[in-house]
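Deliverable D4.2, example record:
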Amino acid sequence: MPSFDYSLDFKTIDFRSSPELYRIGKGEQGVLLVEPYKSEILPYWRFKTPEIAKNSSEKIYQLFLDYLEKDDFVGADMARKFLQMGYTRSRRYANHKGGRKYQSNPQKATTEAEQKLLRQQILPYQNDLIKAQSAEIFKEKWCQAKTNQKYLELKLKHQKMYEQRI
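Output generated by the structure prediction step:
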């Protein structure tokens, strides 16, 4: 799969007007960069409690469906990424107090050896059942989104038109 293109000037690009510039990438890549979708979805993204996660995931899933209704693949994919991020972040907070997995951020390492060493320094594991419930709520909506037939059709169309893949 083509990589997400981080070299773009995200502050000036409107991806609704320029969907040809959007690359799906892997997982949640670009979720906090692609406008106007980030600004439309981010205000609803919350997972502190299961009730908050339920309301948030339902609202974001509705945005996902609204984007699909408009044949807006980029918007739908961004909503899918926010649902995925709701799952991964609440899972991270369920497993590690404060949401930090490592003592030091491995991404800030200057060498591969240093990065490998930092990835071995995992903070103590915990089991926060509240955050784990929030994670499951988001996971359900994320799975619905990523397997939605219209989403898959628009994804394939986007890849064929813009990513020269398949």
